[in-house]
Predict the structure.
Amino acid sequence: MATLESLKQALRQKAKATASCSTQPLSDAQYSAGFDVLVRGSGWMTYQGFIIPQLSQLLAPLFKSRIHISALEIGPGPKSLLGYLPGCLRRKIRSYTAFEPNGLFATRLEEWLCSTSETESPLPCLENPPTVHPIPFVLQHNMGSGTSTGTGGNDEKYDIILFCHSMYGMKPKHRFIERALEMLVEWPQGGMVAVFHREGALHLDGLVCHRTASFPTGVISVANDDEVLDCFAPFIAGFTMQDVNVDKAIRVDWRKVCLALGRREKDHPSQLLFSSPNVMAAFTKHATALPELTAQVPLVKGDKTLKTRQARLHRPASIVRPTEVQHVQQCVRWALKHGVGLAVIGGGHSGHCLWPNVVSVDMGAFDQVHIHTAEIDEVDSASDSSSLVVAEAGCKTGDIVRKTMAAGVTVPLGARPSVGAGLWLQGGIGHLSRLHGLACDAIVGAVMVSVDSSQILYVGYVPSQHRPAGAVRLENESDLLWAMKGAGTNFGIVISLTFKTYAAPTYLTRNWVVPLSGNLEARLRLSDFDQLVARKLHRNCSADAYLYWEAGRLHLGMTMIESFTTRFTFATPTPTPVDAIWGPEDNFKVVDGVSLFETEMYVSSMHGGHGGGKTSSFKRCLFLKSIGEANVADRLVAAVESRPSPLCYLHLLQGGEAVDDVAAHATAFGCRDWDFACVITSVWPRDQDGTEAARSGVQWVYNVTGDLLSLSGGAYGADLGPDPRDAALATKAFGPNRLRLARLKQSLDPGNVLAYTCPLPKETMKQKLIILVTGKSCAGKDYCAGVWVSVFIRCTHKSLTARAVSISDAIKREYAAVTGADLSRLLWDRAYKEQHRPALTAFFERQARQRPRLPEEHFLNVVYGAEDVDVLLITGMRDEAPVAALSHLVPDSKLLEVQVQASEQTRRIRRGCHGGDIDGGDNKDNNNSGSSLTALDYCPSLIYDNNTTGDEAAKRFSEHYLLPFVDEDLQRLANMVRQSPNFPRPSIEYRHVLGISQQPGGLALCTSLLQKHFTGGWANVKAVACCEVGGFVYASALALRVDVPLVLIREAGKLPPPTVSVIKPLSHMSSLASNDSKEKRIEMERDVVPRGASVVVVDDVLSTGETLCAVLQLLNEAGIRAENVSIMVVAEFPVHRGRELLRQRGFGRINIQSLLVFSGA
């Protein structure tokens, strides 16, 4: 799809080639007509999807910091951008000025702003009428010519200045921004200049952005109509011809240019589409502070050579090249002082190591590799070498392999010699990954400069001689070292890494290439490769596959790499499973670690060898399982068939074994359960950088990743950056570790200095409420969810955001893609969905067998896709006991299940209707036609009887039972729980729940909430039971409040006989605080509670569930049956899966309620 910029160049070139007469500027009417075409329809989506949200996010902190706002807009057009901000921001604007050179626009703008109706006024709190100057905004003295301009003599200062639609005609652009900066208020903290620009990158000659964002997916839709094109083309070109006849002729030519470059889509053949990427750049008074940094830190000499085309297109504010650690500290201090971000260059492969108008720190001078002979207790027991490698951040993989190989050791790094520290810190997949794990798994220590304090820190094991002077050990170093192993580019500027090493191997490489006759053979070959070859290999072997197009047909290539630490003696390789399927290999070589890099198929042979060509590439990587399955294989083949360039390919790197041996939560690299890393790579000749060919290649990669994402187990974070097209991939980059990483990011980089790395979610300050709406088919789950969403949203005093999502939509999309079913009808046509239900259910069950974590993947995808809402309602759940099964995946969110019930007759009536419930992931019906609860081995959080018509009953249910879960008192209670890191052991994040009772009003608030949130009736409760010591504090206060007896459960021997007792394992915290694993007995007095009485067990926490299991067993011994027991705890720690343990022990049908949930201990 051609961009508006390329269209403009083509239109101007056509005018220059075909006409010799003079041009003239557009009249106000012509400009107005063209602008209206631009912003109509899909063009307005750029404003709704990018400009207005970015502006709101940018200005919210500024507006919050002051009472009155004065604003200046430059080129706003007929309406003010500020008029589209949220009302709370618009009402802060008390003074408004604009420079709008188009007279028609200026008039319309003033009329719009001066609307007399308060409900229609975009800026309702202006203290004076708006000032709209119908002249351009120009430099004060016109570059020294002495000519006065419209801004001359204007001494008014502004809090915010906006260049609204583009900096069209303003040259040089940086001078106009500098002029705007001079017009900002200086007190209390200065104002802000924001630029929205759609004509390619902003080259601003050394000005440094406070913040920048891009919108590469903007699209303009223009009607294929002569009259419309005759308005649009001159607007894009920027002129018309003076001669009327020539102008008429050139318009005909311009229409042809538009038709030639515009893209048509099958569904909208009458529309021409053009790409309209937008950028936003925000500047403060610190924008001109670069000389302060360059006076202290050396600059890169000459042009910086980078491997990635993506970064080469960016023009940074500057590239500094520190040569000592103190220079890196100065960079950080400068960034913190001026409130700007930094990008970091390691190996130069990252597409975001350079970013427009941002300072990049080139670590290339830190290029030393040191081999350190370690003491025995310094080396991880998993390593079979007594050496450590200290590699500085400017080293490349090839440098380390050469140096270590000479010493007889190696480090499992990436597969290319030119990659650097950014890759190792974010994973590092290489040919030794199956044997020794990822590169990040080999990290045992690091030296870095904090981007919070600019201190030099060291974490883990760093040999003393490699610790810079003044380096200090961080208190919570275990957290930081954990984060460095998989997400390390986000938390500080790394100076060096310490790796454990392994014996240097020799490699045997073998290659096969098989031409494929079509899709069916491709699927069969991929299945054979997956099932009969890859899965049978020992961990010292890896098999990579390449799917590519060459010589007019599809090919599947395979490279098998086998590593040996013993001497390789045989002249011909031993047979492999591949030989029996594909025959003897095309070639084999025995190589060392350095030569191995050149044996990669895409370097040595594919497409004639990519390694020798002048090409550029763009890639993204997803983690897949079962690549031979039809739905995966077909999409892989379809991806190659849709390639925009002959050089595009898919590279499948084998994983498993040592990669999967590491638990997902053990390091920040949380995506561990995969068979192949699928690298989707677009390649084009380097001389086509910046052209339509390159843009099409990039878009192809994103199209393929979007198609495969639902089938993947995660995305590789090393490639990802602030490009908004990476956002969906970033949500799957860290598996279950995203929220912990978000908290660490907030703690270790609060100023977001490292803003141009793989994006992490923002830490949410308040707990999210997730409601799982379950029930039988046609019970009305989706309908109820919609009603409950409206209740949350309309609860105005809480200012809540809420959304309902069907979790089954993902499997429907996969099913439609495989079978050709109509996706739209599957989603919205009940009768059509019912026809496909048996096949859809079978498809889901088959996928679940092949992908055991499929339900968890779908659940997390839905949650991550709704990070911006306070309350998320999910329908279409198939899981039994979903709260117990899924709560550990979202340990910072409150998870509830509301089961919607309806009689068989009601459901039958609804099944015959076309409206109502449309979810497709219904809980399985069972033979019992009565209450669903009687057929379950667990207890839903709440049950709603949906047999009535209308929405009043559903609203009352929501107000009575659901709204209390967003009660502000719960947040007050959560704020009373003090966090104590590294207690009672290092790396433990302890929450002092019992400490609530020590806060003023804490005990009263807690017991009040326990009483209020109990879903049973207190009138039926005969006793409150508790186990020492935490339970005593809250249970005794609650028993007093509800006026029921208190039943004490104590260690054996502390209560007078007669008693009943059971064995109780150590509680979670006791096991952490003590090495004593001895079990104890707990007891209660016999007959203190009548048999069959209703009892509420109260405790301070639910973590592993062992204590509560023992309490329930004790009550059972005393004649209190499980169905008569309810559990209430103050705080729950879902990561320990206590609910699941209780269910496994036979207590799943007990109602468990918790006021708060926390991650950690």
In short: The two ends are 52 Å apart (CA to CA).
